[in-house]
């Protein structure tokens, strides 16, 4: 009997009948006014494709950088934040959101130890835990076993329910790490020993290579995590093909970044009006979560829910009453997204795998700052007649940038060493190229501002 089925049988005694019965039966946003959360709500269960019966919750907790676990804050602030994160996990488990996904480098390496401490009070069979082998950190054959053993200790468990190859994106890295260094053989051996229950991938490449790997190792990988959101599908036209490839090989699809690092939840203006005409009380975040869960073969949608209201809304959205987007709703959402993305943005999800920069550049923070101005349609312009051709806007733009980032943290400090590109899971853009664009824009805005009489202090 598999461990997740055992969960449904043992938890009645271990945690309480109501929680067990509920499980076995079955970004920036807030609830719309008047909405209430039902304490009986649980996420819908979908079967693991490889056996057709193991129940998997449609909603999972992503414990990467969007999860509220600040590792660089000092003193009591850090402790308070971790208490808040633990409260979110407790609430999630109580309401059937039992899959917690982490990674070796998340939150500066603190995500796994945090989960180890927080989950220690729960019976091991009462939650699903997944983590990942950091592909880019494996430099020699012994690194794989060392990292895996360290992860078991950090998470304080004897096995992982799901273990993923992290950030698989191209053939050369896959062959070098997992085949030539024998890391995949090692993980298969751990699976035989019961220390891994299910193997999978966290995939960031093209659909043809995914098909090649799943064909070569048919039946080995049981799930595949991938970027599934409408913004990603706009940047990456091959994106919609990825879940189709997984379905072809009977591999469960795990949706990550359903709200594109929270940006899709910040839809506003004309774009949001398009959605409100169809569902007046639904947030842009709810639309985004539904869009991800409606893609082919999706088994679980992972969200880094930093606030309790986000978790509640997502549970309600992906509950037993969940309905995939209709064809008309899909068209509406894509139309709204097209309007939202008329303003240029950088396809960075804020995962922070790229930091620390050896030269001190605040990479994800700079991209987030730029996207806030860009997607709000507020980038300064010097085109005559343009609504953004304004000295006041230029002044506020420059003040925002110079006040937010110290001199050594700014975009012009990037030397294009490309060290950040190795761990970056995105292949649809290059960090150094986009950083140069930001630096050039700031310099140009400053030049125009001064030329028109502005003073830089």
Describe this structure as you would to a colleague.
Helix 6 (143-155) links the parallel strand 5 and strand 6. Helix content is 44%, strand content 12%. The chain is globular. The chain is built from 18 helices and ten strands. Mean pLDDT is 88; it is low at 1-34. It has 457 residues and is of the alpha/beta class. The protein has two domains: 3-340, NADP-dependent oxidoreductase domain (TIM Barrel); 363-451, no CATH class.
Looking at the overall shape, the CATH architecture of the largest domain is Alpha-Beta Barrel
Oligomer: single chain
Under CATH, the topology of the largest domain can be stated as TIM Barrel
Element pattern in H and E: HHEEEHEHHEHEHHEHEHHEHHEHHHHH
Radius of gyration: 23 Å
Short description:
This protein is α/β, with parallel strands linked by helices. The chain has helices at residues 3-14, 17-25, 76-94, 106-109, 111-119, 143-155, 171-180, 183-192, 207-216, 230-235, 241-248, 269-278, 284-293, 308-317, 327-340, 363-375, 391-404, 431-451, and strands at 45-47, 55-57, 59-62, 99-101, 128-134, 160-168, 196-203, 221-227, 252-256, 298-303.
Topology, pairings included?
Layout (H helix, E strand, L loop, with lengths): L2 H12 L2 H9 L19 E3 L7 E3 L1 E4 L13 H19 L4 E3 L4 H4 L1 H9 L8 E7 L8 H13 L4 E9 L2 H10 L2 H10 L3 E8 L3 H10 L4 E7 L2 H6 L5 H8 L3 E5 L12 H10 L5 H10 L4 E6 L4 H10 L9 H14 L22 H13 L15 H14 L26 H21 L6
Parallel strand pairs: 3-4, 3-10, 4-5, 5-6, 6-7, 7-8, 8-9, 9-10
Antiparallel strand pairs: 1-2
Helix pairs in contact: 1-2, 5-6, 9-11, 12-15, 16-18, 17-18
